[in-house]
Amino acid sequence: MLTLGVAGHVDHGKTSLVRALTGIETDRLPEEQRRGISIELGFAWLDLPCADGTSTRLALVDMPGHERFVRRMISGAAGIDAVLLIVAADEGVMPQGREHLAICRLLGVRRGAVVLTKADLVDDEMLELVREDVAGLTEGTFLAEAPVWTCSVRDPASIAALQRQLSAFAADLQLEHATALGHDRPFRLAVDRAFTLHGRGTIVTGTATGGEVQVEQQLQVLPSGQLVRVRGLEQQGQAFATVRGPGRLAINLAAVSVDEVALGTVLATEGSLPVTDRIDALLHLLGPGRDELPLRRRAMLHVGTTQVEGTIVQLTGEPQLSGTDALVQVHLDRKLPIAPGEGFVVRGSQADPRNGQTLAGGRVLHPVPRRHKLGDPEMLAALTELAQGGPEAQVAALVELSGVRGETEASLAQSSALPLSVLARALRQLLASGRLRKLGSPPRLLAPPALAVLEERILSIIQAFHAQSPHRTGIEPDQLHRLVGGWLDASAVGQVAAGLVKRGRLEARGAVLADIGFQPKVAVTAQAIDAAVLALASAGLTPPSQAELAEQLSVDARELAASLQAGQAAGRLVRLPGEDWITTEVAREAIDRVIEHFADRASFTTGELKELLGLTRKYLIPFAEYLDAERITVRDLSGNRRIRDKARDAWRIRSAEKGEQGAES
Fold this sequence. Notes:
This protein is α+β, with helices and mostly antiparallel strands. Helices cover 38% and strands 27% of the residues. It folds into five domains: 2-180, P-loop containing nucleotide triphosphate hydrolases (Rossmann fold, 3-Layer(aba) Sandwich), CATH 3.40.50.300; 188-269, Translation factors (Elongation Factor Tu (Ef-tu), domain 3); 275-378, Translation factors (Elongation Factor Tu (Ef-tu), domain 3); 379-442, no CATH class; 526-652, Orthogonal Bundle (Arc Repressor Mutant, subunit A). The longest helix has 25 residues, at 156-180. The N and C termini lie far apart (83 Å).
């Protein structure tokens, strides 16, 4: 369903025109009717005939024209497909008409028409002067080539003619949408009205920007994160089981109060929309003849159907001149749900001499960026690709901007404005060409420069580890992972380290990693290793702690640690998750017992494993995690385990070989 905003100066006949076209009174508040001006957004719909004999329903948003209610006008303009700019023929272009057009431009509206109302009050000469006035207003804007229609609400023939013109205009717009819009974005609706109906509960309305929603589906209320159930869906008086955006929509929600979904909240597909207090954006400063924006400037941002104060920072490190575009980072005073590609308007803040004046507007390039170093050429180049580049360039830029932290496929979907199918195709092409790398499980995407930084970080960490622990053979993978950073999956760190080993920049010494040529300072004797192995062999699967073992063997803790690592490097000892050690022989025997016992089972519980091995939880859990890490077992969603196929097959081969050797002897 198409949504048209009806904008223009106060008292230019917007509400009267909507009433004449639709028969719907959009001024529903008593104060609006008493004062004769719109205060809140008004909503109506218009059924228009199509060329094939069917009809299409057009949603109309009647926007307040008074300068005191520009905030509500901006809320109404968020998500519209086109604008009808209303200009009264007896007054011509007025200030709020100019501001409404500027706001639509800043929000990214690209289609529309001009309607000259009150045509019955002027002669042809005056009408021609108003047309010239409108041409001056729209020059250089998206309405420069737009149609200009005339009408009078007192003349039914002119209203009928306007309906026909709107029908042709809507048909063209529908065709553009069918060919240009990507519909596979998640559902999102900024709430512009919330109320309660007796017997139905809470109802919210807004303009859905895209995606699909169904009755009984769960939606997320943002920024709170609360999940709510959809009880009913209605578009312009008609109930539906499924609605696909874009378009005006009313949603009946279950078990939620009006206060919890008030004006300014957003309903979205769960997990699809970030909540953020920092955005990167392309900002257009109105001009010419206006003040420049300094390096940092407090301002009021209007996003969706809400507003928030924040600080605009010029990422170039230079002031922004009027009438120009610039890359900025905006630090918001509170967190908001903001979508990539979303438009916003900047107006003067309360502490600004230009309080309430529309200053600028822009488009969100990255909704959850890092803080940037001002003037960084690589950062500016990446943001320029986000603003102007094709799908592959945009995806590569997002990953580059994430640095060594990289992006998951889920976070990439939240950060990119691309349709999901286009995003997936671009990602496949970037991976195939080597412009991006995928590491770990779940996979994380990194750009080659970030991968190089990560490699240097790993090398630096290992060198620092050798300096701090010169007696140890090398660093263990889990400790390396902790020092690199918990945001990166342990297997991803392992992949990067394995690449460094393969290229000869690191050494793998058993289960530990060391710098090339590093030699531990503590001399580990064969007798010390034998003593540790013997003591651990007698303990089986219930080993003493390292402190207890050091006391038992009467050795220094550092010497014991070196002996244990040397035993591990020699393949005689195994370290379990945590601090416990067992012998390789004990580990192999226990693994064989577990595989033999559960080989033909679809799954088994931790309790069943405990019963088989006769271990307390203190010893059972580390060994069970060791089985997972060694890819002997794998856990399912319920927490149960099963034997992996490769582990079972390898055990059967070993068992068969043992049987043959026994028969020969």
